[in-house]
Amino acid sequence: MKDLSKVLMVLGAGLCFLPQFPSWGALLLGMLIALTLGNPFLSRTQKLTSQLLAIAIVGMGCGMNLQTVAETGMAGLGYTVTGITLTFVLGSLLGKVLKVEKDTSLLITSGTAICGGSAIAAIASAIRPKNQEVSIALATVFCLNALGLLIFPPVGHYLNLDQNQFGLWSALAIHDTSSVVGSTLQFGETALRVGTTVKLARALWIVPLTLLIGFARSKQEPSGKLKKPWFILGFLLAATLMTYVPVLNPIGHWIEMVSKRLLVLTLFLIGANLTAQTLKSVGFKPFLMGVILWIIVASTVLFAILKGLIN
User: Fold this and answer.
1) What pTM was estimated for this model as a whole?
2) Is residue 99 assigned to a domain?
3) pLDDT digits over 157-211, tens only?
4) What is the rounded CA–CA span in Å between residue 188 and residue 192?
5) Those residues with Cβ within 8 angstroms of residue 221's Cβ, 6 or more apart along the chain or in another chain
6) Alpha helix (H) residue ranges in the chain
7) How many angstroms separate the CA atoms of 1 and 147, rounded?
8) Residue 105 placed within a domain
9) Domain total in the chain
10) Which letter, b or e, does each residue of 233-252 get, where b requires 16 or more Cβ atoms within 10 Å of its Cβ?
11) Alpha carbons 133 and 105: distance in angstroms, whole number
12) Buried b or exposed e, range 266-296, using 16+ CB within 10 angstroms
């Protein structure tokens, strides 16, 4: 049985580098192996996870154009700040009402407010939550991502949303960039362009929020010290180079693709770090919190778009 789990772990890690293998599939596969056969490399994968997260996020910066994203971000600054703030307030309240662990609640809220798994990964690197808390937050977000891919296009057509409206709604209400791309791609080229650009602009809020949350948490630590999210600086430096040194773009594109697969591998390892004992200790409440928060956010954003408050 142990030999079988070793083989499946190696094969699962290899699958993560196939472009067709989705991020949610990697997480679920890791969880499936861990919960049925056990992870024979648990101590190693737990240490490797945080390192790969940091490397992948820095590499993702190579896919950013700061000028385009900054212009889009400034145009939607008002509703972005308002939306993120209200989401964090609501997430905090839901977490307390449902008695969800503090870090789990924060991770789910961060993923809902900004950009799903990437935000959870960034915040997790700053606050150092328990492995099972990261796993549960990611599992919640990826389940809702899958639902978003299925639900959003039919709802958009039913409500006769134009492509600009649908692109905005997807970018502001679907968690991960990959799922925004998948949803808007079904709706049209304009929806895809709007959705992707707005989502990338929103993703930049990972930087100040991670630094802010990390600083606030450091004040609560007995030693006053906390792991510094230096990978954020690397992310910004990579994005700056790709924007202002165009000759590097071909290399940057390759680095971005590799980084995306590294992130998928990281999600596989995070799932593999989960155990039956820790899963039982978490319960159903975090998932319920994520669902309620997502429904409220998605409905509110849709209402604002239909009323012309967001355009």
Assistant:
1) 0.69
2) yes
3) 999 999 999 999 999 999 887 778 778 877 887 888 888 778 877 877 887 888 8
4) 6
5) none
6) 2-15, 23-36, 42-60, 66-75, 77-97, 102-113, 116-127, 131-158, 163-173, 177-185, 189-203, 206-220, 231-244, 249-272, 276-282, 285-306
7) 34
8) yes
9) 1
10) ebbbebbebbbeeeeebeeb
11) 9
12) bbbbbbbbbbeebbeebeebbbebbeebbeb
Residue range of the domain that includes 77: 42-306
Is residue 121 in some structural domain? yes
Residue 98 belongs to some domain of the structure? yes
Structural tokens at position 48: 């490797």
Of 144, 123, 143, 146, nearest in space to 134 by CA: 123
Whole-Å CA distances, 42 to 10, 46, 114:
13, 6, 30
What distance in Å separates the CA atoms of residue 192 and residue 311, rounded to the nearest whole number?
15
* pLDDT at residue number 279: 59
